[in-house]
Structures are given as C-alpha cells and as structure tokens.
Design a protein that fits this description.
The protein is α/β, with parallel strands linked by helices. The chain folds into 2 domains: about 180 residues, FAD/NAD(P)-binding domain (3-Layer(bba) Sandwich); about 120 residues, FAD/NAD(P)-binding domain (3-Layer(bba) Sandwich). Strands 1, 2, 5, 6, 7, 8 and 19 form a 7-stranded mixed β-sheet that branches. α1 runs parallel beside α7. It is elongated, with a radius of gyration of 21 Å. The protein starts with a strand and ends with a helix. The model has no long low-confidence stretch (mean pLDDT about 95). The structure holds NADPH dihydro-nicotinamide-adenine-dinucleotide phosphate.
Length: about 300
C-alpha cells in the first residue's frame, strides 16, 4: 500500500531544509527524503563565513545539523533514503523511494541540488578540503595573500579567478584549450587583472602535497613539458551538474539540466511540483540563495494546496 503525504520534499540541503521549516510551521506535515548526501554540498565544505547569522563562521556540516534540528523541531519527518524515480503525470504524485516503496504526495518540492564536477584525479580527492575546493566564494578567504590555481575556462572560472585575485597574491588560471569559453566581458576582466596569469593548453596532472596543497604539476600541450606551480590552494571550476536526471521526463529542464521555473516563483511545468535551490539555479548557487528559494517553494506549495480546498 502506498503512503499518502501532503507535502513531500526531495533533498536536504539549505533549500530542502528551509522549505521543510516553512512547510512544517504552516501545518503541511512535510516529509523529507534526504537523499544520498544528507545535508548536501555544505557537508563537504569546511568553514562557512558568508551565511548571515554566524558572525564567527561555522563548519558546513554543523550548519546543516542546525538546519536539520530546526526542521525537525516543527515536525518534519525525515527519511534517510533516496528517491529512485517519480511519476508526475497526475496528482497525487508518485515518488518511489529506493526502487521499492511508493509515496503519494499532494505536492512535491524538488530540492535535489547540484554537484560540482571534479577532474577525477586521485590527488584532487585526497586533498579535498585541505587546499582543494570547488567554491572560491566559500574558501578563497583562507588563501589570503597566497598563490593559488584555478582550473576551468568558463564564466564560473573567470568570475572566481577575479574574485580570488582580490584576495590572493597570484592566481594561475589553468585552461585546457587555447581560449576561454567565458563571455567576452568576463574574458576582459581576467585580462585586465594583473595578478591573474592564464596558462592556455594546460592540463592538470597532479596536485602535490601530503597533508595540504603545496603545488600543482601541469602539462603544456604546446611545449609538451611539465612544470610545478607552487600554490597552496587549488580551485576546480569546471562546471556543476544539477541532480535532476530522475525528473527529465516530467519537468522542463534547460540545456544544462537545470529545472525551469516560472520567473519569480518556484513553479514548474507541473502544477503542484515546485523546484528550489541549485537544482533550478545555475547562476547564484549560494547556501543563502538556496535557502531563500526553499522558503519560496514552501509558500508556493502552501498556496497551491489552499487553492485546492
Ligand atoms: P561551463 O561549462 O561554461 O565551463 C566549464 C569550463 O571548464 C570550460 O572552460 C571547460 O573547458 C572546462 N572544463 C570542463 N571539464 C574540464 C576538465 N576535465 N579539465 C579542464 N577543464 C575542463 O561551466 P561554468 O560553470 O563556467 O558555467 C555554467 C553556466 O553558468 C554557463 O552557461 C555560464 O555562462 C553561466 N554562468 C554565468 C555567470 C555570469 O553570467 N555571471 C557566472 C557563472 C556561470 P572547454 O571550454 O575546453 O570545454
């Protein structure tokens, strides 16, 4: 027999938990399916210093514990499980958990987030959180006055390189092709920043360091030689992938896989299904903006349910 749920939230990052807090306080008795990485991307970062309300900063995992406790305090039921498929053809919506249990939900809030793409080097994985980061805005401050490298040639890499250049002594931008993919204006910003050195046709071979990043070994496709850049921080900015594959048959996704929502709202193509956080935001991708859109999703869901009465 399928379980009937009023408001189902998929995902447990800042967007999902904020949606849960609002939905629970509005009496919607939300059930959350936390996903494979409970707490989301913030559980793999170290210190968060830019989330308002924490003047001394806070560790990402601890902050997500606070989110969880607040959501549970108002009665959110959290399932430590993952959603394997959905059927949004008609309400109540079918949500299948771990390929076996089917939940029926009057309204669904999708908050499945996105995952940073990584190069896939063993040294990158080993030093993740010890000088290797996929978020310059989160972690750049820890490298104040130091030399760092960033890999990628898109708008994110260009934006993050200029962000890092304000804090760091020197920024090496490692670009695998002979050109940047970033927009012309972003390219100009990079070119006009004196402490960014762009290395084209350059591949990252290895991140060096035992307990923390000490350098990066790069290979030039033009000179066919390797060299070591002495850096203490290594940033990966080669794109993000939204975790939206299970929704592709039901919701409109853009060409990168982000869920399309009606501007100024969290409404998707399917009335009663709302999307928030990084699963639908390819631009800002901050914890605080995700939390804000989670709040919007809960308010949109509440209004939708009220309109059915
Ligand atoms: P993109 O996919 O646009 O760029 C990814 C970059 O990483 C490319 O330069 C790509 O190289 C490089 N790359 C990918 N894989 C590897 C790899 N294995 N090794 C080395 N380099 C690699 O991602 P972004 O995150 O930069 O941008 C995503 C979207 O968000 C874009 O549409 C962008 O315009 C938008 N955006 C807009 C902003 C703004 O308007 N202010 C700010 C940030 C993002 P290659 O070119 O060789 O494929």
């Amino acid at each position: 027999m399928s379980e009937k749920i009023h408001c189902l939230i998929i995902g447990s990052g800042p967007a999902g938990y904020t949606a849960a807090i609002y939905a629970a306080r509005a009496g919607l008795k939300p059930v959350m399916v936390a996903g494979l990485q409970p707490g989301g991307q913030l559980t793999i970062t170290t210190e968060v210093e830019n989330y308002p309300g924490y003047p001394a900063g806070i560790q990402g995992p601890e902050m997500m514990e606070h989110f969880r406790k607040q959501a549970e305090r108002f009665g959110t039921a959290i399932r430590w499980s993952y959603v394997s498929s959905v059927d949004f053809s008609k309400a109540p919506f079918k949500v299948v958990v771990e390929e076996k249990e089917t939940l029926l939900a009057d309204t669904v809030i999708v908050a499945t987030g996105a995952s940073a793409k990584w190069l896939g080097l063993p040294s990158e994985q080993r030093l993740n959180g010890f000088g290797v980061s996929a978020c310059a805005v989160c972690d750049g401050y820890f490298f104040k006055g130091q030399d760092v490298a960033i890999v990628g040639g898109g708008d994110t890499a260009a934006e993050e390189a200029t962000y890092l250049a304000k804090l760091c002594n020197k920024v090496y931008m490692l670009v695998r092709k002979d050109e940047l993919r970033a927009s012309k204006s972003m390219q100009n910003r990079v070119k006009n920043t004196p402490n960014i050195e762009t290395l084209y046709n350059t591949e990252t071979r290895e991140i060096i360091g035992e307990k923390a990043v000490e350098g990066v070994r790069v290979y030039s496709n033009t000179s066919k030689t390797e060299k070591v850049l002495k850096v203490t921080g290594f940033f990966v900015a080669i794109g993000h992938s939204p975790n939206t594959a299970i929704f592709k048959d039901w919701l409109d996704l853009d060409e990168l896989g982000y869920i399309k929502t009606t501007p100024g709202s969290t409404r998707t193509r399917v009335p009663g299904v709302f999307a928030c956080g990084d699963a639908q935001d390819r631009i800002y991708r901050q914890a605080v903006t995700a939390a804000g859109s989670g709040c919007m999703a809960a308010l949109d869901a509440e209004r939708y349910l009220a309109s059915l009465e």
